[in-house]
Amino acid sequence: MSTPEIVPVPAARRQTLHFLRFAGAAAPVYLDTEVDATALLAHRELGRRYSVVSYAMFVLGRVLPGFPEANAAFAGSLRPRTARHTAVDVKLTLDKRVDGVRSVLSVVLPDVDGCTLDHLQNAVERLRDTPVADIRELDGVRKLQKLPIPLGRLAFRLANGLSGRHKRMGTVALTSLGHAPVHRFFSHGGTTVTIGLGRITPTPVVRDGEVVVRPLLPLSLTFDHRVIDGAMAADLLAALKTALEDCDVTGAATPAGHVDGVGAVEHVADREPQPA
Fold first, then answer.
1. Is the dihedral of CA 195, 201, 205, 207 positive or negative?
2. How far apart are CA 193 and CA 89, in angstroms?
3. How many CB atoms lie within 10 A of CB 48?
4. Residue-wise DSSP of 224-261
5. Using one digit for the tens of pLDDT, what is the confidence trace for 16-27?
6. 8 Å CB contact between 144 and 18
7. Element housing 134 (H / E)
């Protein structure tokens, strides 16, 4: 029998440890559904090939303001309280290598409720294609990775107070494993609501009494039961499903002072992210 090699957790994953300690206080509950992605895939063929993640962020920006109780953060035990937000800030997870170690990182895209689909796609492409060392939004994470574990834990807690948490953790989290053959997965991103996307797969379904094949997108929603209840979470999930199936991505206002197709790239740069 071989002797295992005992090694310290890489510094590139320290932020994940700090986050998990924070997230462990939540009371997560899990829901899921399937989205008929026929209209979404048809829209992708009309011109620019948008990421499913971009569609999901766009829809979150339009649907979540109708559920202000869910677009909130929670703190406290003896004096529990919430901070409700008018804007929708999406914490988007990234799969990156840091010093050779595969790590989960995240960036907050603020005010997605005012962004066009092109804005969001530009941001996704930049974050996907830019080397991790050159992503400015990860400067805060890099500082956290350099701190000893006790100091990093303290810094993480101090940086994520209730009033300013949305700047570093967003008001809603979004993660995707659509690159792999994943049908169902449930993640808690430290926000009241976390949305998960799986792989779109051709699937037999019944439509008008007949079996047909449709591209189905697995869509999960994890909610913190300390903040909202299951009925509201179910209504939110249903609204997201309907919006994705309708694929109505027209009529989105371009944020003031931004050039369409460029603004989101600059718009996300002034907030430091925290890990997913």
1. positive
2. 12
3. 11
4. ETTT--HHHHHHHHHHHHHHHHHT----PPPPTT--TT
5. 888 888 888 899
6. yes
7. none
pLDDT digits (tens, 9 = 90+) for 234-247: 999 999 999 999 99
Cα separation values, 216 from 39, 118, 179, 200, 270, Å: 11, 24, 15, 5, 36
Euclidean distance between CA atoms 71 and 238, whole angstroms? 16
Q: Which two structure tokens, joined as six digits, stand for 104? A: 């989960």
Decide: 106 and 91 in contact? Cβ < 8 Å: yes
- Is 44 within 8 Å of 228 (Cβ atoms)? no
Sequence-separated (6 or more) residues with CB below 8 Å from residue 140: 159, 168, 272, 273, 274
DSSP calls for 45-74: TTSS---HHHHHHHHHHHHGGG-TTTSEEE
- Nearest in space to 224 (alpha carbons), one of 190, 196, 195, 175: 190
Which tokens sit at 216?
């189905």
- Reading the block at residue 239, the tokens are 């609204």
Q: Which residue has the tokens 């940086």?
A: 159
| Mean pLDDT, residues 41-58 taken together | 93
Task: Dig out the tokens for 211 from the structure.
Answer: 């079996």
- pLDDT value for 24: 86
Tell me the mean pLDDT in the region 36-63.
Answer: 94
pTM above 0.70, yes or no: yes
The rounded distance, in Å, linking the Cα atoms of 172 and 191 is 5
